[in-house]
Amino acid sequence: MKVLVVDDSQLNLAIAKRYLETIPDITQIVLCNDPVKAKKLLDEEGIDILILDIIMPGITGFDIIAALRSDPKYDDLLIIMLTSLEDMDSYQRCFELGVFDYINKPINPIELTARLKVAIEWKNNSNHLKSLINVITKQNEDLKEMNAKLTDAKFSLVQSEKMAAIGQLAAGIAHEINNPMGFVNSNFDVLKKYFVRIIEFINYVNTKFCSNNSFENQSLAECAAEVEAKYKALKLDLIMGELDGIFTDSSAGIQRVTEIVQSLRIYARSSADTDKDTMVLLNLIQQVLLITKNELKFVTNVELDIPEDIILYCNRIQLSQVFVNIILNAAQAIKSQNREDMGTIKISAEAIGTEVRIRFQDDGPGIPEENLSKIFEPFFTTKEIGKGTGLGLSVSYDIIVNKHNGSFGVSSEPGKGATFTVTLPLVTV
Ligand SMILES: Nc1ncnc2c1ncn2[C@@H]1O[C@H](COP(=O)(O)OP(=O)(O)OP(=O)(O)O)[C@@H](O)[C@H]1O
Ligand SMILES: [Mg+2]
């Protein structure tokens, strides 16, 4: 602790020095009998405590205190006045100016030591407090930075969860389109072969009846018999019989692809949170089943019990993301049982007052009691590393509860299955 004593009397300075030297916490004592130089010394020496005489020639202690206290650079400086003043007004003025304490003149060693100890302790505490504040401020900044990073990470994880959902949808859709396109394609190959024969036959008939010489030596009956033989040799009778079926099949396939593309166009629209529209619940669930079909076959049957007149006001992309999550979770849970029989997912809905309650009930392994409260937490997953992010239900919860004013609950009887219940406001028509 560095102490500067400013007093115009050399005697007082010497006495103060002698007593100050007995205080172990003081590491440096600077003496000054010219008050004008006080400020310069404070700057040069990095002083912690200033002991300042009040009545001095030229400049008074009051002036020095006032100047120091108006400069924030000296906020940390502790000032103790050294005074023989006896009027209370002067004390009051000093304290109002921001003095920490006072020492009476003539200097008494007991008083000086006691007051200096208090000042040093106060200074130490204040230094300690400042370093704590610095640490807390730094920690606060670190936390803010970390929070921003976490928000970014959460955003990108939610994005990647969306991407995963889109990936699953894309895989399902690719499969759904692949099937009808497959048979339209092979029908097309067959048609090409048939067409070659039909052209061959037409050319044959053309040559037969349109060229001048070919018809000359034959009766019409002979000619007709020849044409018929050609017709049979090219198996056109069989081909003609098949054509109708090929066209019916192909047009059903093309119709199916058209339907899928149609349902995709709904998903292609933007999905801002505010992008809501009315939607028939049954249609939405059917579209979700269409795109999850690939994941469900060989694993589980789906039973629907949804009235056709239930209409929701919702963001269809977000809601289908929720339904895809719930249905895929159920299918994955059933699949994890490695059972021989197919599972069952029952999807039912009923309007109750101003709400619609949608239930997804599966007959999979169910959810252990201790996990029921955790499954909506981000990153909670019981799936192997790399198989699940544990974000599906937390993103779904956010969509239902925060973005659609609904509620989302679960119940389960371990060993018998799980039931997820989504409640949403109903649109009345
Ligand atoms: N129908 C269900 N039956 C049994 N357990 C379920 C069912 N649905 C969810 N769970 C449990 O809840 C956990 C969390 O589900 P959530 O959808 O949030 O993440 P995930 O499916 O593990 O991962 P992701 O959705 O990223 O693939 C699952 O790991 C599973 O343990
Ligand atoms: Mg999931």
Short description:
The protein is an alpha/beta fold.
How would you characterize the overall build of this protein?
24% of the residues are buried. The protein is 56% helix and 17% strand. Helix 1 links the parallel strand 1 (2-6) and strand 2. By secondary structure, the chain is α/β, with parallel strands linked by helices. The chain is built from 11 helices and 12 strands. It folds into 3 domains: 2-107, Response regulator (Rossmann fold); 152-268; 271-429, Heat Shock Protein 90, CATH 3.30.565.10. The longest helix is centred in the middle third of the chain and has 102 residues, at 109-210. The structure holds adenosine-5'-triphosphate (ATP) and magnesium ion (MG). Magnesium ion (MG) binds next to helix 9.
Q: What is the helix tally? A: 11
Return residue spans where pLDDT drops below 50 for at least 5 consecutive residues.
none
How much beta, percentage-wise?
Answer: 15-25%
CATH topology of the largest domain: Heat Shock Protein 90
Supply the CATH superfamily name of the largest domain.
Answer: Histidine kinase-like ATPase, C-terminal domain
Oligomer: single chain
CATH architecture of the largest domain: 2-Layer Sandwich
Helix content: 55-70%
Radius of gyration: 46 Å
Approximate shape: elongated
| Helix-strand pattern | EHEHEHEHEHHHEHEEHEEHHEE
Separation of termini?
Answer: 82 Å
* Major beta sheet summary: 7 strands, mixed
Count of folded domains: 3
Structural class: alpha/beta
* Mean pLDDT over the residues: 88
Small molecules held by this entry: adenosine-5'-triphosphate, magnesium ion
